[in-house]
UniProtKB/TrEMBL annotation:
This protein is part of the stalk that links CF(0) to CF(1). It either transmits conformational changes from CF(0) to CF(1) or is implicated in proton conduction. F(1)F(0) ATP synthase produces ATP from ADP in the presence of a proton or sodium gradient. F-type ATPases consist of two structural domains, F(1) containing the extramembraneous catalytic core and F(0) containing the membrane proton channel, linked together by a central stalk and a peripheral stalk. During catalysis, ATP synthesis in the catalytic domain of F(1) is coupled via a rotary mechanism of the central stalk subunits to proton translocation. NCBIfam families: ATP_synt_delta, PRK13430.1. This is ATP synthase subunit delta. The keyword Glycoprotein does not apply. GO terms for cellular component: plasma membrane; proton-transporting ATP synthase complex. The gene is atpH.
Length: 269
C-alpha cells in the first residue's frame, strides 16, 4: 500500500478495535457482515469506486455507505465501514482489501474470545497442507471458471462439522476471492491468527513427525533466537531424508540431510 492507504487502513483498524467491545457475538457478527459488504462491493464496481472517490467529501462517502447498507448491518459494523470509506485511499482495491482484513480480524477476535483461536489457527494451517497435497482440490478451489458460490459449496461439503465454524467461514471467504495459490492464502490466515496472539509462525518441514517434546524444544530454541513467542507448524516431508527445514518469514534455516548434501556438493564444485 502507498502511504495514504496505510494511514487509512490504520484508522479503520482503530475503528474496528473500538467497535469490538462486548461479547464474542459482536466480533463474530461484525466479521460476517464485513464479508457481506465486501461481496456487494466485489459485484458492484460503481459502488466501490464511489465509496473510495477522493474527489467526493469524506462525509458524503460515509452517507452513501449508510444509505446503501443502513438497516442491513449492525451498529458496530456500520461504524467500521463508515470510518473506512471516509478515509482517503490510494487505490479502490486498498479499501476493499482492508475491509477483508478487518473481517478476518473480527472473526479471529471472536475465536479468541471463545478460547478457540489456537484451534482455528491450526485448522487453517492443516487446510493449507491438505490443499497443497491435493492438486485436484487446489485446482478446483483456484479455478477462475467456477463461481465463488461453487467454491464455497465445495468447502462446505468437505469441512462442515469437521472444523470450527469460524475456520469454515474464513476459508469460504478466502476461496471466494482467491485467484492464485489457495494454500498460501490459508497459510496467510493462519499467520494472521498467530500475529493477533503476538506470536510469530515457524513453518517447519520435517523428515519424520516430531514428538511433542521435540516441538517444544524447537519452539523454545526459536524463541531465544527471535525474542518472541513462536508457533510451530510442522509438515512431514520424507524427501528431506533427515532433519528439518524451518521458515520464519524470509528466513530459512536448513538443517535437513538434503540441505547438508547440497551444501557439500557446492563446496566440492
Amino acid at each position: 500500500m502507498y502511504a495514504a492507504s496505510r494511514e487509512a487502513s490504520s484508522r479503520a483498524r482503530e475503528a474496528l478495535s473500538a467497535a469490538l467491545t462486548g461479547s464474542d457475538s459482536v466480533a463474530a457478527t461484525t466479521g460476517s457482515e464485513l464479508f457481506a459488504v465486501v461481496a456487494v462491493l466485489d459485484d458492484q464496481r460503481s459502488l466501490r469506486v464511489a465509496l473510495a472517490d477522493k474527489s467526493v467529501s469524506s462525509s458524503a462517502r460515509a452517507e452513501l455507505a449508510e444509505r446503501v447498507f443502513g438497516g442491513k448491518i449492525s451498529a458496530a459494523t456500520t461504524a467500521v465501514l463508515t470510518t473506512a470509506v471516509a478515509q482517503d485511499w490510494s487505490r479502490t482495491r486498498d479499501l476493499v482489501d482492508t475491509l477483508v482484513l478487518l473481517g478476518q480480524e473480527a472473526l479471529l477476535r471472536a475465536a479468541a474470545d471463545r478460547g478457540r483461536i489456537d484451534a482455528v489457527e491450526d485448522e487453517l494451517f492443516r487446510l493449507g497442507r491438505i490443499v497443497e497435497d491435493n492438486p485436484t482440490l487446489e485446482q478446483a478451489l483456484a479455478d477462475r471458471g467456477k463461481t465463488a458460490a461453487d467454491k464455497r459449496g465445495l468447502l462446505q461439503r468437505l469441512l462442515t462439522g469437521k472444523v470450527e465454524d469460524i475456520t469454515l467461514q474464513l476459508a469460504e471467504q478466502a476461496v471466494g476471492r482467491a485467484h492464485g495459490d489457495v494454500g498460501v492464502v490459508f497459510d496467510g490466515l493462519s499467520d494472521l491468527a498467530a500475529s493477533l496472539r503476538k506470536q510469530i509462525v515457524a513453518h517447519v518441514r520435517a523428515a519424520t513427525a516430531l514428538t511433542p517434546q521435540q516441538r517444544e524444544h524447537l519452539a523454545a530454541s526459536l524463541q531465544r533466537i527471535y525474542d518472541k513467542p513462536v508457533t510451530v507448524h510442522v509438515q512431514v516431508d520424507p524427501a528431506l531424508l533427515a532433519g528439518v527445514v524451518v521458515r520464519i518469514g524470509d528466513d530459512v534455516i536448513d538443517g535437513s540431510a538434503v540441505g547438508r548434501l547440497q551444501r557439500l556438493r557446492q563446496s566440492l564444485g
